[in-house]
Amino acid sequence: MKIIVMDSANVRIEVLNVADHMLEDEIELFLSEHGYSLNNISWMAAPIDYVPVQFHEYDTDKENGEEVHATRSTRLKDFSIYDSVQEVKHREQEELAQALHLQGEKVDDGYEWHFEGECPIVAAYDYDEPCDVVILSVRVNKEGGLTIIGDEKNDRGNEHEIEADDIFAGHMDFIISEIGY
User: Fold this and answer.
1) Residue 137 phi/psi, 5° resolution?
2) What secondary structure letter does DSSP report for 167?
3) How many helices (DSSP H) and strands (DSSP E) are in the chain?
4) Residue 176 scores a pLDDT above 90
5) What structural domains and CATH numbers belong to the chain?
6) Which of 72, 135, 151, 174 is deepest in the core (most CB within 10 A)?
7) Dist. CA 104–CA 131, nearest whole Å
8) CA–CA separation, 116 and 48 (whole Å)
């Protein structure tokens, strides 16, 4: 469970990971015992890992003087390195799928791209070992699933499918830029 503490005295928000079984009185006791002044904070308990957050931006349109309101939704979550890397990987996978939709050759169940000449090389886990992989082709199906065919750079002649999640974060861009997106 997460306790979200809004500290008005210090103008900050803190997220505390605590045991799931705490009741309201126990939470207030816990906060007091850990140095939070209940007079200066507001808090809420969320029994989930991801807390929705809505950001609002208000401004004035320079041309007509009317108020403009924009919103952006995101999630308040643990910001571990692993989570950040996974987010980058998934964003890159979405960008690759979009590049294939725009630049790839239409096939029965999606779009694909075959590399010729200088093929992109990415770092990936291949058979659970990190290595350089030469990417030969990529495909996105109608459901958005990616198929990546590659060959280990130092042991050519064994073309096989590489899982998108096995490609190191930041390396999918080598494929995307080679497509010309």
Assistant:
1) -160, 155
2) B
3) 3, 11
4) yes
5) 2-76 (no CATH), 82-179 (2.30.30)
6) 135
7) 27
8) 47
